[in-house]
């Protein structure tokens, strides 16, 4: 359901619709009505014009056809016509689909949806399925800014429960919707009634989720435990119990539940994701996250999307973001003039390369494999362009991010460019076997022979390569160990500037040997007092990362 460009206001669209109606051009009238619905889905004048069109056309639904690329306004218009024609269940199906597509719009805020007598004309199981369809399409919980458009569906649920007070599936689905929009107490009431009406695994799961949202953790765990008793082979419930326990500091019990699930099926995706997340939470060993990334790569057809890997990497140095600079980043142009073995004098990158890096560079990413995937946008750039970006970084883009970086910490933008240019090098001539490849040779030279900022960017690119390709892990681990040992051997002043960043980078590397891992931890501990105090830069960092934390 792609959106059309909202170039005209609802009033302008309605004026054009009325002109088309007067001329008998019903398809054009329908198009303008659909566009007006997108602009103002609850405006009475829009619905009056739709009613006129329906009367003239004999309620012709084909004026608002459905298809693979149906316009959302046409979908909503068809929903209203179906309701007017005495087929409200089909209309609700379409409204729920529209809400899933564009949840910020008040598609259902119309009288027929909230009419108290509507559920009397609907099968309660059909209402339950519509509510479940809606719940599957929105976040859990729904952000506050998106809750108002769901209120009409909650009113529908209230009315339906009043008409069908003992229907277990309806009560459970209504509870799921209430929970998502912040009505935890109501969710508990409805789910508990559903379980009393007919005890079942699904009913207990709904009740457990409702209790959890209400902060009643003991009751939530009891309900989820009863769900397991109903169906000991539903391993998703095991993962839910484990997640609930872990969220409340009971990590050993959580891991016990996950081990029980994995004993039944070691490849069950929910259990595998939860297990790796909890084990990383327990000991901080990046090996758990690397194993999870391997599982995700080897099982692309999992039942649904999981956020465990991104959750574990979020906010962590090099796993999910650049480390804040421990000292000023050297001027890349001055560093290039001093000479390097890679390119003592490089021309400026092309305008296309500069524009691509402006669109891509950011100080945070979900996790290393996601950063690798995003950098494929640089794959067609020439090697000279990628290296030119390192020594001639373009100005920050004229975006909110660019303005913040340029105004408060320009050096951070330079480091962003360096990191993403090096990630782009990973996509250069990928047909070449790793050991003798151009990409490996260039990144190694950057690691060993250039400025601190470029060296750590190149090292991060190598670490990222190790995340996505198990075959290169021994090679990369050796490079990381060598670079960290060199840094540790330097004097205290130099060490304080880059050692912490490289130490965090080492701890993000797959298959690092224990001695190097211990050295990395020692460097982080020994230089802890040299880190900049929290202040404006810390607040800047929070602003930069905030968009990645929104559901």
TrEMBL record:
It comes from the Bacteria. InterPro entries: TPR-like_helical_dom_sf (IPR011990), TPR_rpt (IPR019734). This is Tetratricopeptide repeat-containing protein.
């Amino acid at each position: 359901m792609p959106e059309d460009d909202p170039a005209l206001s609802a009033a302008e669209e309605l004026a054009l619709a009325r002109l088309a109606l007067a001329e008998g051009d019903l398809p054009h009238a329908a198009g303008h009505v659909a566009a007006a619905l997108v602009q103002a889905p609850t405006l009475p004048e829009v619905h009056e014009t739709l009613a006129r069109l329906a009367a003239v056309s004999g309620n012709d639904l084909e004026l608002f056809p459905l298809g693979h690329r149906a316009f959302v306004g046409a979908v909503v218009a068809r929903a209203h016509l179906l309701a007017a024609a005495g087929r409200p269940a089909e209309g609700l199906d379409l409204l729920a689909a529209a809400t899933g597509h564009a949840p910020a719009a008040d598609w259902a805020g119309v009288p027929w949806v909230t009419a108290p007598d509507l559920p009397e004309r609907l099968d309660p199981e059909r209402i339950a399925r519509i509510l479940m369809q809606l719940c599957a399409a929105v976040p859990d919980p729904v952000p506050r800014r998106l809750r108002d458009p769901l209120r009409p569906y909650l009113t529908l649920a209230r009315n339906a429960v009043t008409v069908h007070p003992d229907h277990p599936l309806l009560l459970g689905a209504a509870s799921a919707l209430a929970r998502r929009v912040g009505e935890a107490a109501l969710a508990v009431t409805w789910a508990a009634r559903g379980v009393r009406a007919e005890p079942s695994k699904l009913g207990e799961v709904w009740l457990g989720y409702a209790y959890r949202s209400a902060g009643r953790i003991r009751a939530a765990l009891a309900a989820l435990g009863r769900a397991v008793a109903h169906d000991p082979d539903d391993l998703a419930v095991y993962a839910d119990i484990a997640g609930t326990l872990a969220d409340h500091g009971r990590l050993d019990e959580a891991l016990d539940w996950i081990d029980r699930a994995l004993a039944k099926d070691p490849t069950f995706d929910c259990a595998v994701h939860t297990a790796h997340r909890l084990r990383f939470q327990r000991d901080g060993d990046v090996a758990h996250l690397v194993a999870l990334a391997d599982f995700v790569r080897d099982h692309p057809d999992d039942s649904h999307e999981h956020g465990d890997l991104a959750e574990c990497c979020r906010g962590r140095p090099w796993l999910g973001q650049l480390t804040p600079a421990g000292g000023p980043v050297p001027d890349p142009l001055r560093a290039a003039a001093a000479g390097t073995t890679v390119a003592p004098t490089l021309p400026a990158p092309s305008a296309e390369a500069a524009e691509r890096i402006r669109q891509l560079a950011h100080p945070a990413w979900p996790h290393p494999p996601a950063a690798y995937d995003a950098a494929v946008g640089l794959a067609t750039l020439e090697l000279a362009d990628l290296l030119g970006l390192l020594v001639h970084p373009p100005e920050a883009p004229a975006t909110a991010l660019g303005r913040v970086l340029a105004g408060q910490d320009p050096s951070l933008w330079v480091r962003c460019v360096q990191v993403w240019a090096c990630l782009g090098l990973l996509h250069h001539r990928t047909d070449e076997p790793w050991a003798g490849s151009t990409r490996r040779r260039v990144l190694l030279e950057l690691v060993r022979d250039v400025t601190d900022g470029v060296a750590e960017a190149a090292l991060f690119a190598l670490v990222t390569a190790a995340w996505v390709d198990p075959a290169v892990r021994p090679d990369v681990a050796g490079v990381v160990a060598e670079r960290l040992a060199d840094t540790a051997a330097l004097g205290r002043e130099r060490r304080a500037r880059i050692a912490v960043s490289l130490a965090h980078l080492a701890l993000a590397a797959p298959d690092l040997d224990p001695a190097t891992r211990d050295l990395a931890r020692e460097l982080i501990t020994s230089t802890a007092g040299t880190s900049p105090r929290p202040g404006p830069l810390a607040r800047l960092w929070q602003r930069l990362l905030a968009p990645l934390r929104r559901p």
